[in-house]
Specification:
This protein has about 500 residues and is an all-alpha fold. Helix content is about 75%, strand content about 0%. A hairpin with a 2-residue loop joins strand 4 and strand 5. Helix 3 (about 80-85) crosses helix 5, helix 10 (about 280-305) packs antiparallel against helix 16 (about 465-480) and helix 14 packs antiparallel against helix 15. The two termini are about 35 Å apart.
Length: about 500
């Protein structure tokens, strides 16, 4: 499959490339595409299944809390996922293990049992955490250091693989899940991951040799100590929850609240820990100071962006027409709008950044991030229009929601792929794959905030709350732009 997507390079060695990039990018592109097919298909169904009478039939606030905690956990687990890639298996083997766990998680979701449903979500979260940090790191391994001019473009092409799978998933998995059977939809997600895993194992020979290396393997003593500490913490958690259940006080919030709080506390703790590491030289310390600015900006961005799959999806289910020119469609199809726009616009952005770079006019990363925040804020200001229409007892037109997703997509393209590339450029050598986990912790912090608001009973589709979130994003973007000179100094030679 990888060979069919490659073309001959103009180099004298006639080495095959993938759209001008190393051939291994095709393997990672296809692996990520199928994994995202499974992930986004399940993600599109999740909030709708949680509120549906034929599903778990929960309230909108509870469904949003579960959805946000789940997303928070997925990205929280990228940190230990990166650590396992760095210290235990190496990135290449870790991704293969992750694929198996994700597939088992989706199969568990396919079983008609509420108890097993939450176990399946846990397995998918664990597998996704293992995969995400390591597969992005392997993309970075394909290039000749942080100054390779193809690097940003390579991450943008890789981002297209994510969105190819994300586009198809709601159309296939969403339709089957909503219109035929919820659990059959989850089973199709398992099939998607199986295809991705098979493709990865076949094409892994094209990956960089660095991806098979464990950068800093654990010693025998460290392995024993880590296993012992892990078992102790597991025993403490098990004893605590057994006691809560036995006392008759257990509710779902006993699970949701600790995860949500951890989603806020752990990102701060990790950044402080890395920043205070005395093994980092002066240049790495300075870059980490700058990185904190980008991290905070990204957390605000993802807090709003990820509500496109929860707050907006549940709103569409109850208050939108969900039809175009008289033709109705499943609510889950809205989740295909963003990826199809990404696929249309990502090549344009990749070409545009490179063209500006050749002329010495490419915007700095700081300007790109500021723009992303302003746009995500603008998208929620736009959300006020369909909310106002629904207040009058009318159904909002589907194109209002499409317009919101369009603005969010443009903002995403100015922030997310650039952030992935920036992380590989600014990561201290000691933390390698783990820094990809740190980048994804920004998503954790944003989603954890959303989940805590939902658990607290905040109506996230209320006009006042939506206005406050939109204003917060715009103000954050302006603050980053105002301090751009200071941040640029801290970044050193990184553009």
């Amino acid at each position: 499959m990888a060979s069919s997507l490659t073309k001959d390079s103009a180099s004298t060695t006639a080495e095959k490339t993938f759209f001008g990039h190393p051939r291994g990018l095709a393997t990672l592109f296809m692996t990520e595409m199928w994994e995202r097919f499974s992930y986004y298909g399940m993600k599109a169904l999740l909030p709708l299944y949680l509120v549906a009478p034929g599903g778990l039939h929960l309230s909108a606030t509870t469904a949003t809390a579960i959805y946000s905690v789940y997303l928070s956990l997925v990205y929280l687990l990228t940190l230990p996922g990166g650590w396992i890639g760095d210290r235990v298996f190496g990135p290449r083997k870790t991704v293969a293990i992750a694929g198996v766990i994700i597939m088992l998680g989706h199969l568990t979701l396919a079983l008609p049992s509420a108890g097993l449903f939450y176990a399946g979500l846990g397995l998918v979260a664990i597998g996704s955490g293992l995969l995400k940090a390591n597969i992005s790191t392997m993309v970075g391994h394909l290039y000749d250091g942080p100054d390779d001019p193809r690097r940003d473009g390579g991450f943008t092409v890789f981002y297209m693989g994510i969105n190819a799978g994300a586009f198809a998933a709601p159309l296939v998995i969403g339709t089957i899940g909503e219109k035929v059977n919820w659990h059959l939809g989850f089973a199709l997600a398992a099939l998607g991951m199986a295809l991705g895993l098979g493709q990865y194992l076949i094409g892994s020979r094209h990956l960089s040799e660095r991806s098979a290396v464990t950068p800093k393997p654990l010693s025998a003593e460290e392995r024993t100590s880590t296993l012992r500490k892990g078992l102790i913490w597991m025993a403490v958690a098990a004893a605590f929850y057994i006691a809560v259940v036995a006392s008759g006080h257990y509710t779902l919030n006993w699970l949701l609240v600790p995860i949500a709080i951890a989603g806020l506390v752990i990102p701060v703790w990790v950044l402080v820990k890395i920043k205070r590491d005395k093994d980092l030289d002066a240049g790495e310390q300075s870059k980490m100071s700058a990185y904190i600015w980008f991290f905070a900006a990204a957390a605000v961005f993802w807090m709003i962006y990820d509500q496109g799959g929860s707050t907006m999806s549940i709103f569409a289910d109850s208050s939108a027409k969900n039809s175009v020119l008289g033709w109705g469609f499943p609510v889950s199809w809205y989740q295909s709008v963003n990826p199809v726009l990404i696929m249309a616009l990502a090549p344009v952005f990749a070409w545009f950044w490179l063209a500006l770079n050749r002329r010495g006019k490419e915007p700095s990363t700081i300007v790109k991030f500021s723009s992303g925040l302003a746009l995500i804020g603008a998208s929620f200001f736009l959300f006020l229009a369909p909310l106002t229409i629904a207040e009058g007892g009318h159904k909002a037109a589907a194109m209002w929601l499409v317009a919101i997703y369009f603005v969010q997509t443009v903002g995403e393209l100015t922030l997310s792929p650039v952030g992935l590339s920036l992380t590989t450029k600014m990561a201290p050598a000691k933390y390698a794959s783990q820094m990809m986990g740190v980048w994804f912790l920004a998503v954790t912090a944003g989603d954890a905030t959303t989940s805590l608001l939902s658990i607290g009973g905040v109506n996230l589709d209320g006009k006042g709350v939506v206005t406050l979130e939109a204003a917060l994003a715009v103000i954050a973007g302006f603050a980053v732009w105002m301090y751009r000179k200071k941040v640029k100094q801290l970044m050193g030679a990184v553009h």
